[in-house]
Structure formats: structure tokens, C-alpha cells
Amino acid sequence: MFVGWGVDAHAQCDSTALLAQHFLGDGSIALGWPIGGQVMKMDVGVRNVSELASDGTGGLYAIWGDLPSCSASVFAEDVYAQHVLANGMVAPGWPAKGLPVCTLPETQQDSRICSDGAGGFFAAWEDYRSGIGQVYVERVTSLGQPAPGWAVAGQPISTLPGYTIQERLTPDGLGGLYIAFEQYDGHYHAYCQHVTAAGTLAPGWLPTGALLADVSSDSDQQDVAGTTDGAGGIVVAWDDTRNGVDADVYAQRLELDGPVAVDVSLVKAEASVGHVDLEWLTSGVGPLAVQRRELGAPWIVLGSTSPDGAGHVVWTDSEVNAGHRYAYRLTWTSSTGQQTSPEVWVDVPTGYRLELAGFTPNPATSVPRVTFTLPDASPARVQVLDVTGRMVLDADVASLGPGRHTIAIDRDLAPGLYWLRLNSAGHELRTRGAVIR
After folding, report:
1. Tell me, what DSSP letter sits at residue 29?
2. C-alpha 148: how far from its chain's center?
3. How far apart, in whole angstroms, are the C-alpha atoms of residue 220 and residue 244?
4. Which runs of E-coded beta strand occur in 75-204?
5. Which of 133, 244, 282, 136 is nearest to 195 (CA)?
6. How many other C-beta atoms lie within 10 A of the C-beta of residue 72?
7. In whole angstroms, what is the distance from residue 99 CA to residue 343 CA?
8. 165, 144, 147: which is closest to 156 by C-alpha?
9. Beta carbons of 189 and 183 less than 8 angstroms apart
10. How far is the CA of 202 from the CAs of 105, 214, 264, 389, in angstroms?
11. C-beta separation of 317 from 302 below 8 A
């Protein structure tokens, strides 16, 4: 369990330092974490931690509102986040004072966070850039960058008039998220929106979001909260005054979106140094052209391809430049004419970063593989320990050089939990893995 808090109250700021602590199941403090808590930011102007979310590898993400100054005349918050690893250290490459998620001149407040299921996180907040409060959402990768296809500084989740406020986030289990929120136009109305991993609305969802209770406009539905239903949908509850001044609690379940007839849907768009890997799933289409463009440039045709027997289209683009952003799409001809898939934007990194993916797959079988990324040829070791602390793998991997690598453990491992460590150039990453039969 992670706990976050602020200390050293100021007349205008809630706190001047943000800390977190990692407790194990028996109530003890996790290895590497100081007794007094790990400092995530020490600076005048910070406010209390809004929420915490798991990074999926034993660490955490924290989000908060940050004041540029504690002066009474300056009260416009920004949204900041921090990534702390399982060992209590700030993740490599993340600023010591936190990552600016949105720092527009207008106020961004009441920020929320949840895991994106892929090592990064979703952040949402009330944003006043348009003059009234509107809920904005952003997806951020583990590297602290906006996810491909997502607008920098966030994007609105609803086209409703008036204020949209008090958002709550729930992962959908498919890489996207549900956002329960309230619209205020003199009364509060409960809504929910479904956004995919690519930043688009889920199929069938309206730009306004889904109204949860179609009742008298003179009543209020507020203080929304949501949780997954375990089947890809969400259950949202709220306080409701439809029966009088005293609020009752109502709930609504929204099921996972039903099948939607589409010709082409995106499965994967991933960039590594020197190449971009793409995959689409198609239904009943013939030959397709793969197209690419950069911002402000025309589309160019990279080549043509056809789906495999299962309808998958896989393409690797190896003619990309480090640090550039590219858009991709497919075009094909149907009985109604020329068709085009939605474009997807991908950022090509400038270099590799130290990363520990862990067992692949996880859980693994009796002879697991360990996947990791090295940024350079510096001395590096991969270690695997069982729950008793016994070393079952201690491999020198520096000779593999920069890039993503997978090594196999050369003996069977008993079923159970294991700790994995990657050390390189004074940095250490940790994660857990499981072995099953």
C-alpha cells in the first residue's frame, strides 16, 4: 500500500513538501523506503497530493496541484506528477520537482490519476482555459511524455455546455478509461465518458458523454464515484435529490461497448529507436496501402499489404528519424469507394532508456524469460531472486549493448513469486514476477 501526504503548511499553500510511503502487507516499510517517507517534491508552492496510482511494477505515480507562488495574489494551480520506483527513488529522467502535466496560465485544479495498464497513467483535472471549468484528460507514458495521438496539455472529455467538474477515473481494463463527472448548469447532472487508449471516444459513445439519470432538471446528481464491474464496464454511484432535499444514493451500470461493425481497427502502434511497429485488425477488406506523414506534410505511400488469415495487418517502418513524430493510416477500396482508417500518431524516441519489463510473459512458465532495455554499453547485470533472497540468476548483460533484450533462465524455477533487478551505471530497477506450472 502507498500513502501520500503534504507537510509544512503555509498561509496560502497546503504544503511545501510532498512525501509518500510504501507499506507491505504486514505493516512494515518496503525495502529502500525511508522511515519518514520518500520526498517526491520539496518546494514552496506545492499543495497536497490529490491521488496515487500504481505504475504496475511496484512503484507509484502521484499527482497534485502546484502553485507557482504562495502569494495571496497568485492562486492559479498547475498539474504536476511524479514517478517513484519500487525502491523509493524518483524514476530516472523525471524532474526532482515533478513533471509538469499542464501548466497553462489559467487554473487547473482537482487533479485525478489512474494507471493506463501499460506502465503509464491517465491524468484528469478541471481546467479553466475556456473561462469555465471543463474536465480535461491526458495520457502520459512511463517516460513522462504525452502518449502518441494525445494532445499536449490535455483534451476535453465532453462537449456539454456549462461547467463539467468533479471527475473520477476508472480503467476499462482494455487500455482506456471511464471518466465519471458532473455537469453544472444551476443543478448538477451525473455523466460518464469512455475514452480509448488512443485518446478517441469509444465506439458508440456520444461527444457529450452518457447521462446517467434522466430525471427532473430541478434535482441534483453529484459526488459521483465509479468502479469497474470486472467485465470491462463500470458501475457509477452518486448522491441524488430527486426525492427531496435529503439525498439518496443511486447507482448505474454501464456495460462494455457492444460489437461495432468496422472494417479496420488499430491494435498496436509502438516506436523504438530506428523503427515503428504497427498492427491493425481488419474484417472483409482486400489489399491495403500503408501511408505515413509528418506534421504539416502530405501523406506518402510506404507500400501495400494484405491481411493474414486472421485479418491482421502487421507493418514495420524502419525509415524513421529519431525525435520525429509520424502519423500512419491505411487506405483501401470497398464497394462504396475509397476508404481510410483513422490516423495514429507515434513519437520516435531519440535513444533507449533503462527499462525492466520483467518476466515475459508474466506469469511465466517454469523456464521464464527476462526482458529489459539498456541505454548504452555500460556495465549492467540482471538478477533474479526468490522470496527467501536466494539468487537464481546473476547475469552480466553489458555485452548485449543498447536496445531491448530478452534472456532465458537456463533452469526450471519452482512456482512462486520472484524479485527481478536490473543494475546499470549506478541505477537500479526492480519488479516482481510470478512462475506457474
Report:
1. B
2. 11
3. 10
4. 78-84, 99-102, 108-115, 121-127, 134-140, 155-156, 163-171, 177-184, 188-195
5. 136
6. 8
7. 28
8. 165
9. yes
10. 31, 22, 15, 45
11. yes
Which amino acid appears at position 386 of this protein? D
> Average per-residue pLDDT in the chain?
84
Going by C-alpha positions, the residue among 357, 353, 327 that lies closest to residue 342 is 327
For 30-36, which contacts have Cβ atoms below 8 Å and span 24 or more sequence positions?
30/86, 30/88, 31/87, 32/86, 32/87, 32/88, 32/89, 33/87, 33/88, 34/88
Residues 6+ apart with CB under 8 A from 81: 61, 62, 63, 64, 98, 99, 101, 113, 121, 123, 140
Cell of residue 118, nine digits: 501499460
Q: How far is CA 147 from CA 38, 90, 120, 340, in A?
A: 27, 20, 9, 23
Direct distance between the N- and C-terminal alpha carbons of the chain, in angstroms, rounded to an integer: 28
pLDDT at 193: 93
Dihedral (CA of 361, 364, 366, 367) sign: positive
List pLDDT tens digits, range 115-166: 998 889 999 999 998 888 899 999 999 889 899 888 888 999 999 888 888 8
Q: Tens of pLDDT along 169-198?
A: 999 888 899 999 999 888 899 999 999 998
Using CA atoms, how far residue 188 sits from 167, 242, 298, 382, in Å, is 13, 11, 45, 54
C-alpha cell at 376: 548504452
> Tens of pLDDT along 42-88?
565 566 567 889 888 888 898 888 876 555 444 578 899 999 888 88
Q: 123: closest CA among 97, 150, 88?
A: 150
